[in-house]
């Protein structure tokens, strides 16, 4: 909630600017909706929802004006005018911008909030469901994982070839037929004739051709009964994406065949026989390494069918580190985040939308992260269109296209959408607001800022690779 400080002069600037009429003057001081959510809990039509900012919004398309929100409001802040519900704070922050005496109550301690509210003597009845900060505040969150030092990586693909679950995806920008230094030929040579520099000892080579069969880039040939490796120099470039070991897939695995045990993922495919439910976990995987295994299946004797098992998750075996011994690019790493983001944040709200743990609350120009909920899955960072959230993976999701339209019958003409848009994609025409499709990037900031839920909005993402 937004509160007025003791220096409030009652000028009513915040009251006039509030798009939902959620502020009123009591004893010469501005008082606003507490965003306690009691109206939301008591709405019989599901017409009130909590937005990305942590405020509450009335969906005027669903609201029938029954008045249950008004009758249950503990501070009598809600009114109904011409069938439209007013008095509920959407936490748009306009009041704080217009008046220096307004502060964000989310930043205050519980005791300060209660003291101020009780001093105004308007609680009827006393609140008991108002959310407040926990006394045990988490200042940072960390996660251990097997990752890649991209400064050392030569993108040979060796780690991916040896990963037992296929949790490492390597894209190599090297022409077909050129050695990529993966050393698989050395590993499969039965006589030890191939050394780590991909040079065959003609005195011991038996021409079994095992190296040729194993070469993933078809860089080995035979000429005059000799093994020839095409070692033409070519700068090693590419990308590497591997499981983050965040445990989100285990959290969303409905039949518990995939579990997070002491920070390590463990999978029992036999559990899938009775109830196979991988779709939600696969869809939610932030970097899309999790998938159904195309080689291993579980046989269901009762229905006489083969069921797909899971692959693409890190089991923390460390094999990737062992086989990357010459380069040393694969390492066990620790990622730590204190919840801060860069000033590039445009308040689009995508991070809050995609967070499966409900850990992100949106503000204007920033976000608040409940670190006690955050598991560092990096889903927010992967989706952030401006790179305001730090990430460790090369994987990225970019907005490809979308649809954005303002329903004029629902629009309250408050102008919040225009104020929050970083791309000047909201035009004001004859007192109304319309979306300029040529400028719109479908970030969703306007949709999240709208207190009337007047936007018909869709967006599509595409996968891409981004350097880190």
Relevant terms:
two-stranded antiparallel ribbon, 468 residues, 26% strand, alpha+beta
How would you explain this protein's 3D organization?
The chain has helices at residues 13-17, 38-42, 68-72, 94-98, 110-120, 158-162, 184-188, 210-214, 248-252, 279-284, 319-323, 350-354, 379-383, 416-420, 445-449, and strands at 2-4, 23-26, 29-32, 48-50, 56-58, 79-81, 84-86, 102-104, 141-148, 168-172, 220-222, 227-229, 238-242, 258-261, 264-267, 291-300, 305-311, 330-337, 360-363, 366-369, 395-406, 426-429, 432-435, 455-465. It is of the alpha+beta class. Strand 6 (79-81) and strand 7 (84-86) form a beta hairpin. The radius of gyration is 29 Å and the shape is elongated. The mean pLDDT is 89.
- Work out the strand percent: 25-35%
Annotation field: number of helices: 15
Uncertain segments = none
What structural class is derived from the secondary structure elements?
alpha+beta
**What radius of gyration results from the CA coordinates?**
29 Å
Q: Quick check: average pLDDT? A: 89
Oligomer: single chain
Biggest sheet details: 2 strands, antiparallel
Strand order, sheet with most strands: 1-8
Number of strands: 24
What share of residues is helical? 10-25%
Distance, first to last CA:
37 Å
Morphology: elongated
């Amino acid at each position: 909630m937004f509160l007025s400080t003791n220096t409030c002069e009652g000028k009513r600037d915040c009251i006039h600017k509030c798009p939902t009429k959620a502020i009123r003057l009591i004893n010469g001081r501005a008082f606003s909706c507490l965003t306690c959510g009691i109206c939301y809990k008591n709405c019989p039509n599901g017409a009130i929802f909590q937005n990305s900012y942590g405020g509450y919004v009335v969906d005027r398309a669903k609201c029938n004006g029954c008045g249950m929100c008004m009758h249950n409001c503990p501070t009598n802040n809600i009114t109904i005018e011409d069938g439209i519900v007013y008095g509920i704070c959407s936490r748009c922050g306009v009041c704080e911008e217009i008046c220096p005496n307004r502060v964000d109550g989310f930043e205050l301690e519980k005791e300060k909030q209660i003291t101020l509210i009780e001093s105004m003597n308007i609680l009827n009845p006393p609140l008991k469901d108002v959310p407040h900060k926990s006394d045990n505040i988490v200042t940072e969150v960390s996660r251990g994982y097997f990752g890649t030092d991209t400064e050392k990586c030569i993108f040979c693909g060796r780690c991916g070839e040896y990963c037992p679950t296929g949790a490492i995806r390597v894209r190599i920008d090297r022409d077909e037929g050129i050695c990529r230094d993966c050393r698989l030929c050395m590993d499969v040579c039965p006589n030890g004739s191939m050394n780590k520099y991909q040079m065959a000892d003609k005195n011991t080579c038996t021409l079994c051709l095992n190296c040729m069969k194993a070469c993933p880039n078809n860089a080995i040939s035979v000429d005059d009964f000799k093994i020839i490796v095409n070692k033409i120099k070519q700068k090693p470039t590419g990308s590497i994406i591997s499981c983050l070991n965040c445990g989100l897939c285990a959290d969303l695995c409905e039949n518990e065949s995939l579990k997070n045990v002491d920070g390590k993922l463990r999978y029992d495919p036999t559990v899938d026989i009775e109830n196979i439910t991988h779709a939600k976990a696969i869809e939610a995987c932030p970097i899309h390494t999790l998938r159904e295994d195309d080689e291993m299946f579980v046989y269901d004797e009762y229905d006489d069918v083969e069921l797909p098992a899971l692959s693409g998750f890190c089991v923390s075996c460390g094999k990737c580190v062992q086989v990357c011994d010459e380069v040393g690019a694969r390492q066990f790493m620790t990622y730590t985040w204190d919840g801060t983001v860069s000033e590039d944040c445009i308040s689009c709200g995508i991070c809050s939308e995609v967070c499966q743990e409900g850990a992100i609350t949106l503000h204007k120009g920033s976000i608040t992260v409940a670190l006690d909920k955050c598991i560092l899955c990096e889903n927010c960072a992967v989706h952030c269109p401006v790179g305001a959230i730090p990430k460790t993976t090369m994987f990225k999701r970019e907005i490809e296209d979308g649809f954005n339209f303002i329903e004029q019958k629902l629009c309250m003409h408050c102008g919040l959408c225009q104020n929050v848009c970083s791309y000047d994609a909201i035009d004001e025409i004859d007192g109304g607001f319309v979306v300029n499709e040529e400028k719109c990037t479908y970030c969703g900031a306007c949709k999240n800022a709208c207190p009337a839920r007047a936007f018909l909005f869709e967006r599509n993402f595409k996968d891409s690779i981004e350097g880190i």
